[in-house]
Design a protein that fits this description.
about 250 residues, alpha+beta, Pseudouridine synthase, PsdUridine_synth_cat_dom_sf, isomerase, tRNA pseudouridine32 synthase/23S rRNA pseudouridine746 synthase
Length: about 250
């Protein structure tokens, strides 16, 4: 997540030729589309932009929606590669500019689902206010909690509530009020309840007698001001791997 449009989110100006399979793949992610915005349900394993894997990123796949003028949608924010769920794009430069300003103005409300372990956080709901700072370990960037007066401290706030729990794990709803890198992952780890599958921050790799397939974090909903003036909410159903682990741990809804 990013609190403001990153320089890394600049549009790729050179068109990319996509295969029919790639075009069908990205079009299959669409959960809302109009003249101003396209909302997508990004699968886990797909980099939003700038991934190191030699496959197209979501940003590059957006050429599937390019218009005859050569304009294509622009990412407004990002998700970590192994996080699934809602991503918003602006179809035009004015729409992308409007949405970027709304994001910087904290007018976006994001809702995530996560499976954490062991058991429910204590208390079962609350507000985490822990500043974060970035630290490099080799080529990898990590975020760590720090004192508010640390020179590199960034304010970070996350609301959470427990939706289901047993002695082994919990399903939690997370609502970030700021957008720091890895914020939800580090904040849940700070409570002693890292997100399952999060190798970087100590998440469980097996739960309910089965392996955790990936980072169990899903961007379930996004509420934002539409460029046309109304408030809009888009939702993305969790993927099969998330639902399968949730059902194994807590039973069917």
């Amino acid at each position: 997540m990013s609190p403001r449009p990153s320089k890394k989110l600049r549009a790729i100006d050179t068109p990319i030729v996509l295969t029919p399979e790639e075009i069908a793949f990205v079009r299959g992610m669409v959960i809302h589309e109009d003249d101003q915005v396209i909302a997508l349900n990004k699968p886990a394993g797909l980099s939003s932009q700038g991934g190191r894997i030699a496959t197209h990123t979501l940003d590059e796949l957006l050429w599937a929606f390019a218009r005859s003028s050569g304009n294509r949608p622009r990412l407004i924010h990002r998700l970590d590669r192994d996080t699934s769920g809602v991503l918003l794009t602006g179809r035009t430069k004015p729409a992308a500019g409007f949405l970027g300003k709304a994001l910087m103005g904290k007018r976006f409300r994001k809702t995530y689902l996560a499976i954490v372990a062991p058991g429910a956080p204590q208390p079962a709901k609350g507000l985490i206010e822990l500043p974060l700072r970035r630290e490099m370990q080799g080529r990898e960037a990590y975020m760590k909690t720090c004192a508010a007066d640390h020179p590199d401290a960034e304010l970070a706030r996350t609301r959470y509530r427990t939706l289901a729990a047993n002695d082994e794990a919990a399903l939690v709803e997370l609502s970030p009020e700021t957008g720091r890198m890895h914020q939800l992952r580090v904040h849940m780890a700070s409570l002693g309840r890292p997100i399952a599958g999060d190798v970087r921050y100590g998440g469980a790799l097996t739960l309910g007698g089965r392996p955790v397939p990936r980072l169990m974090l899903h961007a379930a909903a996004l509420t934002f001001p539409h460029p046309d003036g109304q408030e809009m909410r888009v939702e993305a159903p969790p993927p099969a791997d998330f639902e399968g682990l949730r059902a194994a741990l807590f039973g069917a809804d």
